[in-house]
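Sample pair:
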Amino acid sequence: MKNQVLAYMLAGIAVLGLASCTPQSTTIEGKVSNISGNTIIYWPTADGVYNSTRRDTLFVQADSTYHITLPGSGNEKISFYVYGQRYLGTIYVGPGTNKLDIDASLEHSLNIENKLVKENEIVKELSQVQEDVFNLRARKGDVFDVEKDTVASSVYQKLTDYGASIEQKIVGVDELFKKRAVQDIRMQMLLAFMNQYFGINYRGSEEAKKEWETVYPKMLAYTDINQPENVFSEAFADVIGSAAGIELYMKTGQQPTSRNESNQKLFDWYKVNLKGRVQEVAMSNIILEDASNETFSTDIPSLYGQFKELYPSSKLIPALDEAVQKNISFNKLDLPEGIHILNTDSVRSFKEITDRYLGKVIFIDIWATWCGPCRASFAHVKPLQQYAKENDIVLLYVSIDRPMNADLWKKMAGYYDLKGDHVIINEYFKMDVYNTYGNNGMLSIPHCAIINKKGELQFKGAASPENMDKLAEQLQEAAQ
């Protein structure tokens, strides 16, 4: 009897041991080669949801090893990039340890070692589909043969046939992954269709527009816009936002008068036209993208309140809480000392502004609140500010934002502590700025320039504060 009891106890301990060893998180680990001082970033899905704001940086140890831990116990997708240079690939991982060595010098070089062999073969196909759609949208290639096709029914047939050819390869996998893969393909095909639809609406005949408007619902039905696994696709945010834009603005010819109006209309459209998980993720994206893009619309806390009424138990709430707190902090911010907002209401030429500083060197930084690279460059302004203070140099920040974003422009100047003088262009000297500092009326930002003590444009394209050594040389030359 004692032996029998002992056997039961050992069996119970074994069961408990197995339960405690069941992986509750996913790890990816391995070595990185040929990184050459670059940064690798990655985007993972969480609970099967892809969100472009959920970006992280890969921390590589001194011995070239790395270790990533993802929460949750389900299978997820994770994409890797060398920041600003190349796409390395996407993998599908499951709970437990997944081995992955990364060669940062090669595109599409990821070969994951785990049990999801077939799934990772299909993920490579999905990555290629995504790249093909990106190339179509960027006018870098057209494997679908639709770029010059103005007939909506023909474009629909080509894209759905292409999608079907890829879907045929999705075999030997579980139903969840199959559904994720199928919907990813269909979302990408819908994005490609929308790209052509926008082009026709812009330059097509009225007859062509009507035909595309008739076929468009058929493309939506093919995709099944409310299919829950659509949120796995990297095309999700673009597709859902474009679907709303087509109905709210393209078909009506109306445009929002403010970011707040745009956000509320988007939220309300999602509330009426989307369902379940698709609606939840789409609504949350409005809030998360506001924080990621640093647009800090003042209606975000109100939208968050509406979201929580609909989805009080959402797994997205921790991330949304963080985004909303960032928004609230930004909008409570007062302008720090040393930031001067100049009134340009009566200014008729940009020279009227620069002539105020005759006898001084002017460093000009042309930017906009919506420009990510502009905002990223502000991390390097402190050495410039110190140099300007020591050498009596004017720091003039010129925003090319629309007047509707004036409040955001002022707050963002304070948020980044951009000490100096600030102006926002008006319709009178807008083209003056574009023609003087751009080419043929086209201006790429961020853009820096230097005016010398005589009021002459000495460096039409000056070095950025990120290259302070070069910039200091140019400022010294302008001071002669």
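The two ends are 101 Å apart (CA to CA).
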